[in-house]
Automatic annotation (TrEMBL):
Subcellular compartments: Cytoplasm, Cytosol; Nucleus
Gene3D superfamilies named in the record: 3.70.10.10
Species lineage: Eukaryota, Metazoa, Chordata, Craniata, Vertebrata
Region called Disordered, residue ranges: 209-232
Complexes and interactors: Component of the toroidal 9-1-1 (RAD9-RAD1-HUS1) complex, composed of RAD9A, RAD1 and HUS1. The 9-1-1 complex associates with LIG1, POLB, FEN1, RAD17, HDAC1, RPA1 and RPA2. The 9-1-1 complex associates with the RAD17-RFC complex. HUS1 interacts with POLB, HDAC1, FEN1, PCNA and RAD9B. HUS1 does not interact with RAD17. Interacts with DNAJC7.
GO cellular component, as recorded: checkpoint clamp complex; cytosol; nucleolus; site of double-strand break
Organism the protein comes from: Kryptolebias marmoratus
UniProt-recorded name of the protein: Checkpoint protein
InterPro entries: DNA_clamp_sf, HUS1, HUS1/Mec3
Length: 285
């Protein structure tokens, strides 16, 4: 197994660093899956058992000037590594103004992602900084746990309001309850509700719009045309898990969507030009 990549463009380096920082806010540990064309950050939380799930996909050509990898075999040409994204994020933050950054899979005292960067200097002597981020290599027998999740058969799909606005609302509601009820319909309406014995608070969003896949029942996962556009689907979630998702966003997305499986799961999708992030939050009774 071999992996090495090189980033020269500072804008690409900073963008990659922001993506990793976003991942680090969402989970303490995740799997970095390397293939010839893509990098994936995966958290295969058992949503059915109350865990969150995450799938973040990056096209390597949009970030790396050089990218070489050899998987476990020609038939299974990929590498799966368990990483602590916060360690990776810290290492990348220290080299943000570098002339170049090299990332390589190495074996020191344990397997590592070694990040080496040449930093600008006033003298003619180059200054190279190296960070070793420990990783665990995941055996092929466990790879099936880290495949792309299927889009659930959702009841409602809706665009989210600006994430900063949503975060401000959720931050305030978190002081009132540990749980939040999300309601939405195919008419572009969304409600966030807190209901306790002492207080009931609802925030209304209108004219959000619905993604085009929600208009065609023949597409996988799309809601059925038989559903009344006014009908609300709902899911009650742990507000801290939603807040964690909103706090983590370092990438300014071009689109953000929410798919609701009634009383089952909230599937959040954030799209940037070259990054897609899916986040699954299970509903609670």
């Amino acid at each position: 197994m071999k992996f090495r990549g090189k980033i020269i463009d500072i804008a690409c380096l900073n963008h990659f660093s922001r993506v990793v920082t976003t991942i680090s806010k969402l989970t303490k540990m995740c799997v970095l899956r390397l293939t010839p064309d893509n990098l994936f950050f995966v958290l295969s939380g058992k949503v059915a058992n109350g865990g969150v799930g995450m799938w973040c996909e990056l096209l390597q050509a949009n970030f790396f000037d050089e990218y070489q990898m050899e998987g476990v075999s020609s038939e299974f040409n990929e590498i799966c590594l368990e990483v602590t994204p916060e360690n990776l994020s810290r290492a990348l933050k220290t080299v943000q103004n570098a002339k170049y950054v090299k990332i390589k899979l190495t074996r020191k005292h344990c397997p590592c992602l070694t990040i080496a960067a040449e930093l600008p200097t006033l003298s003619s002597v180059s200054r190279v900084v190296t960070h070793d981020v420990p990783v665990d290599i995941i055996p092929k027998s466990l790879w099936h746990e880290f495949k792309e999740p299927s889009i659930p058969d959702f009841d409602v799909s809706i665009y989210l309001p600006p994430l900063k606005t949503l975060k401000n609302v959720v931050d305030r509601m978190k002081n009132l309850s540990n749980f939040l009820l999300i309601e939405a319909n195919m008419n572009g309406e969304m409600k966030l509700k807190i209901q306790t014995d002492l207080v009931s608070v609802t925030t209304h969003f209108k004219d959000l719009g619905n993604p085009p896949w929600g208009e065609d029942s023949s597409q996988d996962g799309g809601p059925s045309h038989s559903r009344d556009p006014e009908d609300m689907a709902e899911a009650r979630v742990d507000i801290r898990k939603l807040q964690q998702f909103l706090m983590g966003q370092q990438v300014n997305p071009s689109k953000a969507m929410c798919n609701l499986v009634h009383r089952n799961v909230v599937h959040l999708v954030v799209l940037h030009e070259d990054v897609s992030l899916q986040y699954f939050v299970p509903a609670v009774a």
